[in-house]
Design a protein that fits this description.
By secondary structure, the chain is mainly α. The chain is built from seven helices and three strands, in the order ααααβαβαβα.
């Protein structure tokens, strides 16, 4: 059952039994107690309103009860800690407000490729992700980006968000037991879920003044370009939320890594017509296919 349902019929026996302890303790005589609800909706509404007033009147005339409730509520409020041990979101330390992360003019030299050197865009993404989250570890004690991919973390280089930079160690892959601080979520081929998780992450604002600034995590997710449509629903809703909601939200980096079937994604190759079929290897994922083929000198480079 997803949620509770109202007592049916109204004024059922079980409904009145939930009111009995209160009525007996404070001497409240509820109208229609133990009786079925009036058939006339106007009379039913009047009965409910009258019983609500009986509860409120009790507070007006029982100062001892009011004092007890006030002290109890104040004590509960005072018991809430200003900081939670183990929480990595520290006020006034949000990396989302750090201007150095987007100041490309001050990026270190080894973050850039050399003039004339050929590098894919994904290589730059991996290095930048490692740099940003590593600087955030050093300066803010937590990552800014949580990353995930549809089984393409390595080939799209989105795994860089979990790598270290220089002498700063990386955050690694998330594991709820071994590495709960990991910044790379171990997602599979679940584009729609990844989009929902990413937008959900960026929608959570823990700032003291969420109408003025954002304090939380950004997200990044990747898949094949041809499968990007699977992410559209959550991304479209998040885009509308970012435009219309008075609360500040974070950012999501939506990465389309490849626009064709990558190495070994669907069919390595059919059986040779001039040779007897000798079996096959079943794998899941593109990088695992490439790795499997690399074990055999005969298959290396021929898939």
């Amino acid at each position: 059952m997803s949620h509770g349902s109202p007592h049916s019929p109204a004024n059922s026996e079980s409904y009145w039994e939930t009111k009995r302890p209160f009525a007996e303790k404070y001497g409240v005589d509820f109208e229609g107690f133990g009786e079925p609800a009036p058939k006339d909706p106007h009379l039913f509404r009047a009965q409910v309103e009258a019983n609500f007033r009986k509860v409120i009147d009790l507070l007006h005339h029982d100062q001892e009860l009011v004092d007890h409730l006030a002290v109890a509520l104040a004590s509960l409020g005072d018991s809430v800690p200003s900081e939670i041990e183990g929480c990595h979101l520290k006020p006034r330390r949000s990396p989302a407000r750090d201007p150095r992360l987007l100041d490309f003019r001050s990026y270190p030299e080894d973050l850039w490729a050399k003039p004339g050197e050929k590098q894919p865009n994904r290589a730059a993404l991996g290095k930048w992700g490692a740099y940003v989250n590593s600087i955030c570890r050093r300066e803010h004690g937590r990552p800014l980006f949580l990353a995930m991919s549809a089984d393409l973390a390595g080939s799209t280089n989105i795994s860089g968000f979990a790598d270290g930079w220089g002498e700063i160690p990386g955050w690694g892959k998330y594991d709820r037991a071994a590495n709960p601080e990991g910044s790379l979520l171990p997602q599979e081929i679940t584009e729609f879920a990844n989009a929902g998780i990413s937008t959900g992450i960026a929608s959570v604002n823990l700032a003291e003044n969420p109408f003025e600034e954002f304090d939380g995590f950004y997200a990044s997710c990747s898949t094949y370009g041809s499968f990007s449509y699977l992410k559209y629903g959550p991304m479209r809703l998040f885009s509308q939320l970012a435009q219309d909601c008075p609360l500040k939200v974070g950012k999501v980096v939506w990465i389309a890594g490849h626009f064709e079937a990558a190495r070994g994604a669907y069919l390595i190759r059919d059986y040779s017509p001039n040779a007897r079929p000798m079996g096959c290897i079943l794998v899941q994922g593109t990088m695992s296919t490439t790795t499997s083929c690399s074990f055999s000198p005969r298959s290396s480079g021929r898939a």
